[in-house]
Amino acid sequence: MTILAIDTSNDALGIALYQNEQVIEEYISVNKNKHSARLMPAVDQLLKNAEVKPEDLSKIVVAKGPGSYTGVRIGLSVAKAMAWSLKIPIVGISSLEILSLQAQGRGYSVCPFIDARRDLVFTGLYDSNGQIVINDQNILMVDWLDKLAEISKKIIFVSPDLKQFEDMIIEKLGEKAIFMPKGFHVTRPGLLALAGKKRPGEDVHQLVPSYLRLVEAEAKWLAEQEGKQDG
Predict the structure, then answer these.
(1) What is the pTM assigned to this prediction?
(2) Rounded to whole angstroms, how far apart are CA atoms 137 and 123?
(3) Residue 137 and residue 128: Cα distance in Å, rounded?
């Protein structure tokens, strides 16, 4: 089995190749350049480095969000186009679930989160084996920490946006809060490939992004429509 993993759901662009029971190629780039311009050239180079042709691929695994609206859309669009043209299975996995795998197996509940702006975060809670404890959601960080404060066990946090919320977490949870070391807060596309290798393929036309909220333009449009109806 040869799996291509794609994650452009946040600032980091990550792709990986899994083959012969191991991750054989992995590329991560954390910069602000547009994913739309860099993703396909990066995929082409990754395949060339591994001497793998597109037709050798047997599955594509993609991070389906939440995260950056544009980033999620780009990754899913490319993954779905490749899966459809190559006639191979595709699997979409929560970006938060993949982020949580960075801290899996350490004996603690795992809280991955991503800044969603305006004091909101995309987040969820997973156990030490990667099973969902609290479903992924979009919530004010202060309200989320109130929920976590009711849990007696220690919680390990992993996030590319940790610095922004670290003081708040410590203030609210104290010694119950544990943080992954530096260097473990960016999603590994190799873990994405591993997570998807045994999951069944999905209908390429039914696979949709997990935004967890309306995009701002859509929310404004709905608000305007409601205003017109009220008038």
Answers:
(1) 0.89
(2) 6
(3) 19
- The β-bridge relationship of strands 155-158 and 109-117 is parallel
Place of tokens 């404890």: 133
Q: What is the pLDDT of residues 29-88, one digit of tens each?
A: 987 668 989 999 999 999 999 999 999 999 999 999 999 999 999 999 999 999 999 999
Backbone angles phi, psi at 182, to 5 degrees: -55, 145
pLDDT in tens, 110-150: 999 999 998 999 999 999 988 999 999 999 999 999 999 99
Chain CA centroid to CA 221, Å = 27
Residue whose entry in the numeric block shows the structure tokens 């995260």: 67
* Residues 86, 161: Cα–Cα separation, whole Å: 36
Q: Which residues pair with 13 in a beta bridge?
A: 29
**How many Cβ atoms sit within 10 Å of the Cβ of residue 175?**
7
Whether 122 and 220 have beta carbons less than 8 Å apart is answered as no
Instruction: Give me 1's structure tokens.
Output: 């089995």
State the burial class of residue 38 (Cβ atoms within 10 Å of its Cβ: 0-12, 13-18, 19+).
Answer: middle
Which stretch of 17-31, 119-133, 216-230 has the lowest confidence by average pLDDT? 216-230
How far is residue 36 from each of residues 53, 76, 119, 168, 229, measured CA to CA in Å? 22, 11, 27, 34, 38
Burial class of residue 27 (count of CB atoms within 10 Å of its CB; 0-12, 13-18, 19+): middle
- Are 47 and 17 in contact by the 8 Å Cβ rule? The answer is yes
